[in-house]
Amino acid sequence: MSTPILTITDSLLAEQGAQPSLAVAESLSASGPSPQPSPQRGEGARGPLTVVLPGKGPLLTRTGWSAFMMALIAVCAVAPVLNLWVPQGSMFHMSTYAVALLGKIMCYAICALAMDLIWGYTGILSLGHGVFFALGGYAMGMYLMRQIGRDGNYKSDLPDFMVFLDWKVLPWHWTFSDSFIATLILIVAVPGLVAFVFGYFAFRSRIKGVYFSIITQAMTFAAMLLFFRNETGFGGNNGFTDFKRILNIPLATPSMRMVLFVLTGLTLLGFFLFAKWLVGSKFGRVLQAIRDAETRVMFSGYNPLGYKLTIWVISAIMCGVAGALYVPQVGIINPGEMSPANSIEIAIWAAVGGRASLIGPIVGAFIVNGAKSWLTVAYPEFWLYFLGALFIGVTLFLPNGVVGLVKKFRKGGEK
């Protein structure tokens, strides 16, 4: 039988179309030769070394596709019918509050999914993903502020906070804020560019582990302090609020709220399929190998820098898109979204649901934020204690999260 490290090395080399070097073969043979020829190892220790990788499975199982279609129907059909057509007095009516709450949690679920790609599948714990979420939110918020036009308190073409601070013209970084197309580009480009610059220098310096987590936390804290300053042109500690319309369509209507809800649900489902495809590809298998044995991956001829940087940027863009969907539904964006506590919460969602499972972080986001919405009303003084106890309990007793616990019970039932 081959060792786990040997299997990882051979798999990576086979995907490159390369044979292991003599040094690799000698170092691996020290852990013990295979007593018998193995179908996966070719003709034996001295024969040609060929690796037969398992065939690539379907994107989702039949059960998975059924669950996906049920979620799609719930988002695109059931929720709109219950909210817009079922009378308010009916027990089946979905309130506007529920629509806003679920839309907000789905934005959080996108962030948790992004965290799973970088932490669960690559082994990089980021405590600064809140900054990417906020950057996407600010890009959308700038556009929404320009959409207010002269309907603000000061009846000016400038946003109200700029008039209050006696600004005469828009800052240079507001140049394209009146264009919806430019805003969509900025929602992707700004978080992606910031992530690329930060990740390039961090990964090139081979910063990892707790040191990387601390640096990402320092990054989001520094960004929060920067956005608190009035002279940066982002509204200071008040941020952006009092949005009126998007694409010249009023925001405060049930139909527009439902459109934003459906768009958020479709984005979450789309990102889930994308993440599922990504982790099942060759790229995803290399990411998991980097997570488990980065040094061995480097020794096999792969440069982890490009892989880690790519998934880091993808994860940041996903958070930016989530922030852009979050702002028009919640109606405000301020530097508080960049607080280190918010970034830590994203990691907690992934841990509670179950890392390296994709569906787990989504479930974790719904569980934690659903509990938060209830506890902050019923027991507001105990919410933070509950959150800390939940994270400690999951770390000690549920290392694979809620999804891992469900899988464990399912296997036990089958036996």
Tell me what you see in this structure.
With 415 residues, the protein is mostly helical. 66% of the residues lie in helices and 2% in strands. The protein contains 15 helices and four strands. The strands form two sheets. It has a two-stranded antiparallel ribbon. A two-stranded antiparallel ribbon has the order 2-3. Helix 7 packs antiparallel against helix 11. The longest helix is centred in the middle third of the chain and has 27 residues, at 254-280. Mean pLDDT is 87; it is low at 1-49.
Q: Quick gist of this model?
A:
With 415 residues, this protein is an all-alpha fold.
Write the SSE topology.
Blueprint: H1 4-16, H2 22-29, H3 62-85, H4 96-120, H5 129-148, H6 160-164, H7 180-204, H8 209-228, E1 240-241, E2 245-246, E3 249-250, H9 254-280, H10 282-299, H11 304-330, E4 332-333, H12 340-353, H13 359-378, H14 383-397, H15 401-414
Antiparallel strand pairs: 1-4, 2-3
Helix pairs in contact: 1-10, 3-9, 4-9, 4-11, 4-12, 4-13, 5-7, 5-11, 7-11, 9-10, 9-11, 10-11, 12-13, 12-15, 13-15
